[in-house]
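Lay summary. Proteins are chains of building blocks that fold into shapes, and those shapes determine what they do. In this project we predict the shape from the chain. Here is one chain we studied, written as its sequence of building blocks.
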Amino acid sequence: MAATTAAPRTFWEEFKYVQSDSPVLGMQLWHLVAIIVMGICVMLSVVCCFIDWRIPRTRKEIELDRQLRHMAEQYAEQVMNKMKEEENRNEEDMPESQKKKVTPVFKV
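And here is the predicted shape, written in a compact code that computers can read:
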């Protein structure tokens, strides 16, 4: 048997052949590429909207962020101290019969 030699196809002929075959779900190749690119853009937008990635621009803003963090820590500490004082005060005012006996719980 003699091998038949067909004329080599050019790039455009090969491209048309690939496009005429519908690779997936009857869509053209450019449809698939467009859908994938749009999906990536949507996912990137969603991730960027839900995650607050911000780099402070100036030294002033960096200092302000540090001061705000420090103030928030101090406020949390004050609230915890007040809660502990109230708890201790309430325990001191209770008669011994009403006080709960707490057994220590150890987590392994």
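What the prediction tells us: The CA atoms of residues 81 and 87 lie 10 Å apart.
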